[in-house]
Amino acid sequence: MGTRTPGHGPKRPNGAREAEILELLQRADGALTPREVTERLGNELAYNSVVTILTRMHAKQLLTRTPRGRAYAYAPVTDDPGFAARRMRSVLEERADRQDVLARFADGLSTTDADLLRQLLDPGQ
């Protein structure tokens, strides 16, 4: 039971696999094909599983893809801070009470973060 066969890594939630692949792509020097992703994961996942995950991530607009030979090469649409900002915007856009949400968010900021946010919102200060 403790053995692992190539292409059949331990069962993990899709979100964890996506995060792992996203991190791998962010560290890469450029876009990677599914075969390259599979190899860099140590053949822990089957090639078809990697293709499925990359395709889903592309559909979620987390990745761009460009043709390379007979496959696509995938790259993240932004860096890690960019993804965090997208998540924050997404949460805010889901809410009808934006003002209340922003007020609660601002109330929870440290003095340092509040000062930084002021500088970012009004660079001419």
UniProtKB/TrEMBL annotation:
The answer to whether UniProt assigns keyword Transcription to this entry is yes
The protein's matches in SUPFAM superfamilies, at most eight in alphabetical order, are given as:
Winged helix' DNA-binding domain
Recite the UniProt keywords alphabetically. DNA-binding, Transcription, Transcription regulation
Coiled-coil positions are none
Q: Name one Pfam family in it.
A: Penicillinase_R
Domain of life the protein comes from: Bacteria
Cited InterPro entries: BlaI_family, WH-like_DNA-bd_sf, WH_DNA-bd_sf
The family line of this record is: Belongs to the BlaI transcriptional regulatory family.
Q: What is this protein called?
A: CopY family transcriptional regulator
Please name the source species: Streptomyces hygroscopicus
